[in-house]
Amino acid sequence: MTEHLLKILVVGDGNVGKSSFVRRYVNGQFSKTYKMTVGVDFSVKVLQWSDTEKVRLQLWDIAGQERFISMTRIYYKGAVGCVVMFDVTSSSSFLSCRHWKRDLDKKALLPNGDPIPCILLANKCDLPQRVVSADSIDRFSHANGFATWMETSVKENKSIDEAMRVLVQTILPLQSSLDPLQPQLLRPHDGVLRSDQDSELRGQSCC
Q1: Helix, strand or coil for residue 24?
Q2: What ranges make up the beta strands (E) of the chain?
Q3: What is the pTM of this model?
Q4: Cβ neighbour number for residue 29 with a 10 Å cutoff
Q5: How many CA atoms lie within 13 A of 189 on its CB side?
Q6: Does pLDDT of 36 surpass 80?
């Protein structure tokens, strides 16, 4: 059995639903109340990708205010993919996605120097007070180099698993072509977690 170990970032402004997204994806749970993330929260999700492949995702939920400080370079190190999320009822959170993507493109690079694959998620699409149109999102996604974009609702569990499957499908061929002979076993802050470190770091915040 081949096991792929992938560090995935989850970024976006505060209150767009990042922590809810991670919790829904990892545990299948949703709560209306969450504590604000400080720094970064960490979760692990294991996927049985095929009969011969397992994918272990290390999800780094980056606090919304981190874009304004220099710590993001540390958090981004070793990442191979990213979810950029905004709230369709908040135009400011959508506009901030450009800044998040530029920050990622400068600091989160694959071994060959290319930017890491990113998907853009338009969250809270179940709410009626939408202010960001699908056409605007589509144009923005193409103009800023996102692999794809999807509308999601963490509350309604809409497109959560599908979005992550698309991201993993984008990452795996790149990983194989960049470094087919080297096992993806790095220190936690290099981006990929060894299986014996899961229990030590699960749920802890990075400082």
Answers
A1: helix
A2: 2-11, 40-48, 53-62, 81-87, 118-123, 148-151
A3: 0.84
A4: 9
A5: 8
A6: no
